[in-house]
Amino acid sequence: MTTLYLYSTLGCHLCEHALEVINPLIGGTQYVLKEVDISESDDLVERYGIRIPVVRRSDNSKELGWPFDTKQAQHFLS
Predict the structure, then answer these.
(1) What is the pLDDT of residue 21?
(2) In angstroms, rounded to a whole number, what is the distance separating the alpha carbons of residues 6 and 23?
(3) Collapsing DSSP states into helix, strand and coil, what is residue 76?
(4) 31-37 and 54-57 as β-strands: parallel, antiparallel, unpaired?
(5) Is the separation of the CB atoms in 72 and 25 below 8 Å?
(6) pTM above 0.90, yes or no
(7) What is the Cα–Cα distance from 56 to 70, expressed in whole angstroms?
(8) CA torsion angle for 60, 19, 53, 11 (degrees, to 10)?
(9) What tens digit of pLDDT does each residue of 17-68 get?
(10) How many CA atoms lie within 13 A of 59 on its CB side?
(11) DSSP character string of 18-59
(12) Which DSSP state fits 14?
């Protein structure tokens, strides 16, 4: 299993859109999605504060930052 971390925060409408793009692509795959609220860590706020939503892969640490569409997300996952 590969974990995908979605860095976001409460009330982030762009993060909700990112979930709408990613969720249909990972059903029945080797991916599991974990949302990470950046507001719980000063380090994460510093790193991702103006960039969220960002998806990071656990297997290679590559990141996909918003904005992205379905095609870009598919490429990121392949």
Answers:
(1) 98
(2) 11
(3) helix
(4) unpaired
(5) no
(6) yes
(7) 16
(8) -150
(9) 999 999 999 999 999 999 999 999 999 999 999 999 999 999 999 999 999 9
(10) 11
(11) HHHHHHHHHTTSSEEEEEEEGGG-HHHHHHHTTT-SEEEETT
(12) H
